[in-house]
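Repro:
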Amino acid sequence: MKRIVILTAGWICIGLGFMGLFLPLLQGLLLIGCGLLLLSKESEVMRRFGNRFKERYPEQYQRLLVWKTRLISLFKK
């Protein structure tokens, strides 16, 4: 059940992130990165995309780490 929730949340974040690239109200890169971080636990391909994101956008990656710890703390409850 936990794996399904993580996969669903990751793909939703990626979908919203792509929408955010065109809509001014959503943070596109932040949401895509958050989705990649969630999916990186389940997929090697997503882990590689996450590493590329980390190298290309280091400031955004640091913000993602904060969100990652928040999301992980929610799932541990």
